[in-house]
Amino acid sequence: MIRGTDISHWNDTINIAALPADIAFVSIKASQGATGKDPFFQTAYHALKQERPEIIRIPYHFFDWQADGVAQAKNVLSRGVDYTEPGTGPLMLDLEGDGEAGIFVSQNKALCIQRVNDFIAYIQANCGRPELFIYSFDNFIKQNLGGHTWPGTIFWVSSFQSTPPPFLPGWPYKMWQYSQFGQLDGTVTGGNYDLDQWMSTQHELNTLANILAT
Question: For the segment 172-190, what is each residue's pLDDT rounded down to a tens digit?
């Protein structure tokens, strides 16, 4: 298994140096909406570079459905990440929402899809690479977006179960978040972590992280 985890300021007690040896990648929350910036991002991102450079770094942005897509793209790009640097994976866009957010998406599907399209187009034109992860729950896509997919991106599905979920038509996932209650020995006293599995080869993951074969 090629596994990793995703973290944010909610995990600000994590000991980066003590991450288990089999953790191949870490996704770190960089921003949210048009102005929000995760206060833990810079610390975690640079700690990974300095203390565990063999772990692939994947910044992520939490999408605000009621904010302009381009403004959100500019916000995440303001975090100063070089997406062409060895060891850095593509940006991950987190698409989710419950309660009022889910209702807004359901009632404004076309607008929300366009905002995501605007975000993607701006990122691809300005971050130095075309690849992009999109993270979401498979049920969220089906129930709130009418099953809309973005085949030109890499789907990162969230489905908490013991076996991989079925693919959405025309949009097979390559990353699977399989647990929200994971434990990582040595990293923190108590606390749970989201755990993820890369479903393709190490070579493909390395290529996405700008790591050239030797």
Answer: 999 999 988 777 765 554 4
Task: At 75, list the tokens.
Answer: 């916000």
Query: Would you say the pTM of this structure is higher than 0.90?
Result: yes
Q: DSSP letters of 89-146?
A: ---EEE----THHHHHHHHTHHHHHHHHHHHHHHHHHHSS----EEEEEHHHHHHHST
Q: Is there a contact between 90 and 131 (Cβ–Cβ < 8 Å)? A: yes
H-helix or E-strand spanning residue 48: helix 41-51
For the domain spanning 2-208, the CATH number is 3.20.20.80
Residues 6 or more apart whose CB falls under 8 angstroms from that of 94 comprise 29, 60, 61, 62, 63, 135, 136
Helix, strand, coil content of the chain in percent (nearest 5): 30, 25, 45
